[in-house]
Write a structure and sequence with these properties.
four-stranded parallel sheet; 337 residues; 41% helix; six-stranded mixed sheet; single chain; Rossmann fold
């Protein structure tokens, strides 16, 4: 395996914890959680792992400005802005949505980190504005580096290939977890996580192959059609493998995903997300976010109730962070309604 450029600012390994109260409340299988909401950078989240590789690549290319885009309450943009501040880059963000009179949650944090923010009300024009922002930075004599949506490039996907290595070491006792999660004689049968731009998903699929994870890796789509997601993730995992040496060719059949929980649309907060956020908070004192982990866990709980997972199986819910969005004006009242 070839050596890859990587910085080390995430708080790793993230702990694995057991959720016995939730399992009991659902009368379901054993549930564990991998706490990537505790990666440390700007309230943590899954993008921090990707940024360790992306920021290293930007430095290698001599960049002085990071440019990226996302939704108005993007967790990715919040962590990108924080990484830019920490490593001395300027940061320009193109965010989709109507600019509010008062910044809250992730948008407020973007501003605190010094990011220059452009808002685009119509998502259809976001790519065009993002490219113009990049071109304008070049014309002004800057050396911009375009951080892809969600950090989901072959470089960014490496963050979750090596996250799988970390998990395998934890399960074998090679790393101490911050909390004892008991015996895992059977191992983990399922990893369940939210998938959207595909970088986390592609990294886990690649890491599964590289490090020998024997369970199943199920992505619950936040906003993408299942077949498109499988094609994109398999291609991204294949391209990411090239950065580690010889290419590993993945096919759509190597990718497990479901689109059954995203039909309301991106960022649309519904009764499933609301119930799930309350269940996790009430039974485990664990916070989810209204867009990603709330929807992902709602899908997982629905599958448990339908008997999709066997009672004697073990599920690892990979918590990808995003809790600052709980405090966004768009969601805060609906969460507690």
């Amino acid at each position: 395996m070839e050596k890859t450029l990587r910085l080390n600012f995430a708080h790793l390994p993230t702990p694995i914890e057991e959720l016995p109260n939730l399992s009991n409340a659902l009368n379901g299988p054993r549930i564990l959680v991998k706490r990537d909401d505790q990666t440390g950078l700007a309230f943590g989240g899954n993008k921090t792992r990707k940024l360790e590789f992306l920021i290293a690549e930007a430095q290698e290319q001599g960049a002085d400005t990071l440019i990226s885009g996302g939704a108005l309450q993007s967790n990715h943009c919040r962590q990108t802005a924080a990484a830019a501040a920490r490593y001395g880059f300027e940061c320009k963000l193109v965010l989709t949505g109507e600019k509010p009179q008062r910044a809250s949650a992730n948008l407020l944090l973007d501003q605190l980190f010094g990011a220059e923010i452009t808002t685009v009300e119509d998502r259809a024009f976001r790519d065009e504005v993002l490219q113009k922002t990049f071109d304008d930075a070049l014309a002004a004599g800057k050396k911009p580096y375009l951080v892809p949506y969600g950090g989901s490039s072959p470089t960014g996907a490496l963050g979750y290939a090596f996250a799988m290595e970390e998990l395998m070491k934890q399960l074998s006792g090679g790393f101490r977890s911050f909390q004892n999660f008991g015996s895992l004689e059977r191992g983990i049968d399922w990893i369940v996580f939210g998938t959207s731009s595909g970088g986390t998903h592609a990294g886990l699929v690649l890491g599964q192959r590289l490090f020998g994870f024997k369970g199943k890796v199920l992505g619950i789509s936040i906003d993408e059609p299942e077949e498109e997601l499988k094609s994109h993730v398999s291609d991204l995992a294949s391209r990411a493998s090239e950065k580690l040496g010889g290419r590993i060719q993945f096919s759509r059949n190597d990718v497990l995903a479901t689109e059954n929980y995203c039909r309301a649309g991106y960022g649309v907060f519904g009764e499933g997300e609301r119930e799930t956020i309350h269940l996790f908070a009430k039974h485990e004192g664990l916070l989810l976010d209204p867009v990603y982990t709330g929807r992902t866990a709602a899908g997982m709980i629905d599958l448990i109730r339908k008997g999709f997972f066997k009672k004697d199986e073990t599920i690892l819910f990979w918590h990808t962070g995003g809790q600052p969005a709980l405090f966004a004006d768009k969601y805060s009242q609906d969460v507690v309604r």
